[in-house]
Amino acid sequence: MNLSLKTTHALVVALTIFGANPCRATESSPAATPASQGFAAPAQAPSGPDIVGSWHGTVKSPAAEITLVLHVERGADGTLSAKLENAGNPTPLSDLKVTSGHLAFRIPRGNAAYEGDWDSAAQQWKGTLTSARGTAMALNFAQGALAPWQPPPDSEIARLITQRNAPRPGQGIVVGVLGPDGQRFVAGGTGAGAKFDRSTLFEIGSISKVFTSLILADMVNKGAVSLDDPAAKYLPAGHKVTERNGRQITLRDLSTHRSGLPRMADDMRPISDPDGPFADYDEKRLLAFLDRYQLTRAPGSEWEYSNLGVGLLGYLLTRAAHTDYETLLRDRITRPLHMNDTMITLPPTDAARLAPAFDAFMRPVKPWDGGILVGCVGIRSSAADLLTFAVAAMDPHSPIAPAVKTMLSVRVPGNSPQFDQALGWVVLHSAPGRELWTHSGQTGGYRATLALDPMQGRAVVALANTAAEPSTVDLGEHILIGSPFASTPPPPTEHTEISLPAAQLDQFVGRYAFGSATIIAITREGAVLRAQQEGVAGAPALPIFPEAPLAFFWKVMDAQIRFTADANGAVTGAELSRGGRLVTGKRISP
């Protein structure tokens, strides 16, 4: 289950330097100077080299070590244009100044700035990059572009795994890499005594959606269903799927997250439930929800990630094929590809290979049961099997090649310019003319990432047996394309709870908007405040505890909220802090 697609792209880490909201890759930002628009720059002083060309450097942010490349061009009229590139993604620059060995420029996206001086002995521009929040980070530029990224050797991957596992006893990570030299696997971690290797089994969460959409594409190619079939066509008699403005939900809509259905049904268990949100969610409850639910917008009009939608798709495909989901998975994918470790129901002989699951605080948790919605979240697999799948997905002669072609022939906009949504696959635009086929997965005690670079014939899979973040997304994309790799955050902050009068808590009750449709509702229950995210079915109202008159913290996660007030003491907003990220919101009611 992909709980937060907004963080699937590792560039989000880099954008924190440029002042963008690290929690939302689609946050609005100041208009950037177009790359084609030049700006006047003084002639280069004798004390420094000609700035035209490519320069590379590395900056260490609080979250990651990020490699940047500065590209400067001079037009026919003598004006300069420049851009700053990270992992193939260019950001236009403005206000370039090169005078007497001094270099300065501004990054309009977030109003960050750089200033440095030429060091002739080191043959570098030595300076400081200052973020929009005032954070100053050393950044030196040496001449020349970087050599094309190569996936790191096993020893470096092992080091990264060890670094990520160090503060989390019991966590294990397995990484599989496909490249010109073939397949290789690196594993590390204690796993509470479990063995971690290429055959260790993990829940792969929402990567299951790729398999469900591949089954759809295969059935389309073979004439069993059509992408534009209404979902209602495959429901039992007497049941319906809501429509709006005369538009019915189609199988295409379900696979591309444009159905209009919510992320989760409102009668599911909360995500924090020990048995997971899908346990005991059966056909009867699914059909009852569909019978009564009313869409708030027309199908096909907007992208919104929906576990419910893809879970429903898997259910409808079983009805169209007159079989169960596991049989569909086996007959159309795993058996032709000899993926013997990819399954839903683990036989006793394989159950011991399932890595023990831990939550974000390294407490043991139960594996999830996908229930009737198994197609969105219920598959287990190994690193070896997922790399076999990646090889087949990029091989035009594999048994699944026609279905993969159909999957990728469908493209709709996502909620960010950085990605398109295909059938199942998230297609990331990692650089001009280059794309990655990706998906990540999250369950109560597992994290999984699968990313393919078809242009280079490379792929990576990263699997972990905890819900602790950062987990596998940034690790996988760093290995594949050199995106930033976040260092493991420090241990949770210690907090001392204080007492506040119940009446004093009333001043915080209300709704707070944090941008991009994220709204947190604060309610009071006796002497306790609770915080709950709106619009997320099953999201629990978790208690928050005071540590200062305006500051509260969660005990179930390392997060804090500090309320802000005006000159008269009236609460006007709040700041959320988690994992080193700070997001500011305003009070919208009462």
Short description:
With 590 residues, this protein is an alpha+beta fold.
Describe what you observe in this structure.
By secondary structure, the chain is of the alpha+beta class. It has three domains: 5-143, Lipocalin (Beta Barrel); 154-486, 3-Layer(aba) Sandwich (Beta-lactamase), CATH 3.40.710.10; 502-589, Lipocalin. It is 19% helix and 30% strand. The protein is built from 13 helices and 28 strands. The strands form four sheets. Strands 1, 2, 3, 4, 5, 6, 7, 8, 9 and 20 form a ten-stranded antiparallel β-sheet that branches. An eight-stranded antiparallel β-sheet has the order 11-10-19-18-17-16-15-14, sandwiched between helices. Strands 21-22-23-24-25-26-27-28 form an eight-stranded antiparallel β-barrel. β27 (571-578) and β28 (581-589) form a beta hairpin.
Overall 3D shape: globular
Which class of the largest domain in CATH terms?
Alpha Beta
What is the CATH topology classification name of the largest domain? Beta-lactamase
Number of helices: 13
CATH evolutionary superfamily of the largest domain: DD-peptidase/beta-lactamase superfamily
Number of strands: 28
What is the correct CATH architecture of the largest domain? 3-Layer(aba) Sandwich
Radius of gyration from CA coordinates: 25 Å
Topology:
Blueprint: H1 11-15, E1 53-60, E2 64-74, E3 80-86, E4 89-92, E5 94-99, E6 102-107, E7 112-119, E8 124-130, E9 136-143, H2 154-165, E10 172-179, E11 182-189, E12 201-203, H3 208-221, H4 251-255, H5 283-292, H6 307-321, H7 325-334, H8 348-351, H9 374-377, E13 380-382, H10 383-394, H11 401-409, E14 412-413, E15 419-421, E16 426-431, E17 434-442, E18 447-453, E19 458-464, H12 473-481, E20 485-486, H13 502-505, E21 510-513, E22 519-525, E23 528-533, E24 542-548, E25 551-554, E26 559-565, E27 571-578, E28 581-589
Antiparallel strand pairs: 1-2, 1-9, 2-3, 2-20, 3-4, 5-6, 6-7, 7-8, 8-9, 10-11, 10-19, 12-13, 14-15, 15-16, 16-17, 17-18, 18-19, 21-22, 21-28, 22-23, 23-24, 24-25, 25-26, 26-27, 27-28
Helix pairs in contact: 3-6, 3-7, 3-11
